[in-house]
Design a protein that fits this description.
The protein has 13 helices and five strands. With 306 residues, the protein is α/β, with parallel strands linked by helices. The chain has two domains: 31-185, Globin-like, CATH 1.10.490; 193-305, Transcription Regulator spoIIAA, CATH 3.30.750.24. The chain has a five-stranded mixed beta sheet with strand order 1-2-3-4-5, sandwiched between helices. InterPro entries: Bact_StressResp_Reg (IPR051932), Globin-like_sf (IPR009050), Globin-sensor_dom (IPR044398), Globin/Proto (IPR012292), Protoglobin_sensor_dom (IPR039379), STAS_dom (IPR002645), STAS_dom_sf (IPR036513).
Length: 306
Amino acid sequence: MSDVVSSSITGNLADTTTHANALADALAWFDITASDQEERRRLSGIAEQMAGEIIEAFYDHILSFDQASKHFQDEEHINRVKRAQVRYFEELVSADIDDAYIENRRLIGRIHEQAGVTPTLYIGAYAFYMHRLGHVILDKLAEKPEEAFRLMLALLKISHFDMSLALETYVETREETIQNRERELSELPTPVLKLREGLLLIPVVGTLDSHRARSLTVELLEGIREHRAQVVVLDITGVAGVDSAVANHLIQSMSAARLMGAASVLTGISAEVAQALVKIGVSGQQLNTAGDLQQGIKIAEKLIGT
């Protein structure tokens, strides 16, 4: 269910042929009606009047916490962020919820994530603002509690929608960062190290997908030919994970090495890799394996000696 909603809010809005319907669906999911949007605009005067005061109180509050205060460089930086925060909350009660509004909220989520502002800090700021504004509304409409309650409900719906946009972007930005780092690691060249005459070490670090596994085979075979190696130690301690397809590539690489007259020792096998090897029908008797690199080199030296 959450995947459908996320796609409705963040995915389809980028499609010019469907974004209008997607926005309508997203608002409907949060039960935000046209009446709710009109109700919260009635708060614009109060929000404009109180936003600066609430934000000042908020920063007095958060700057007393080391975790929050470390995100600010100096007084000028704090003042700049305060002004942006005032605009942010003024728009919450006054701006039309349209494509521009959504893109702005998503941009804020990206900026926050890249600046290291955690969701906890973001939601904390929101909670502080809503709590203070709620008290102001109740005071202003003390004689009209039903109206105050209706206004707060409308504002809560919209604020939850607003937060969802920023938080989804937090997640997307974090996932993009992780994927970029994994891609960078997958593109790292795999070194072929000559430990001594006849003995090569190939340490594999990062993501090992099918494409990189094929490149590894080429590098391994070229290294054997160039150095006339008798034994190759293939160390995968630094590999995050291996699926069955990649495990099969590793076995093929070791078989190709054997055809070129070189034995292979596979080291750094994790429980996940062991399961992947078993899944494709490989047993421990078919491979020279070792739990760690030190043990693998010992096995390799014995193989050279025989």
